[in-house]
Specification:
This protein is an alpha+beta fold and 117 residues long. The chain has 3 helices and 6 strands, in the order ααββββββα.
Length: 117
């Protein structure tokens, strides 16, 4: 999939519950990531946690904090006109979270490959 197909899925809050295993819902002051945007995510167990987008390179990457803790980074790299590499990053002590991120990557790929009207 091209970057312009994948990036909106990562950046627009409406898509997060579709691919993010730990996000059931999003409430935010904007519709997509931008530096300084704040909001809340609802976890699968129903708890709402505050978040803030801490850094954005439009069309390329974004990072955030959740409940004041540095969370995942999200990066896209064009590998050609129709191929994109997506990387999620976590700080060292969140390494076990990689299993959850793998599920998110799989869901993101499925979502990107699903035609939208």
């Amino acid at each position: 999939m091209p970057v312009n197909t994948v990036w909106p899925l990562l950046a627009e809050f409406r898509w997060w519950p579709s691919w993010g295993p730990t996000v059931r819902a999003v409430s935010a002051e904007a519709t997509s990531v931008a530096q300084g945007v704040r909001g809340r995510i609802q976890t699968p167990v129903g708890m709402w946690l505050p978040f803030e987008i801490t850094n954005v390179e439009p069309g390329r990457s974004w990072t955030w904090t959740v409940a004041g803790i540095r969370a995942t980074g999200h990066h896209v790299t064009a590998l050609g006109s129709d191929r994109t590499r997506v990387d999620f990053t976590v700080s060292g002590w969140f390494a076990p979270y990689a299993v959850v991120l793998h599920t998110g990557l799989r869901r993101l790929r499925e979502l990107a490959e699903t035609p939208r009207t």
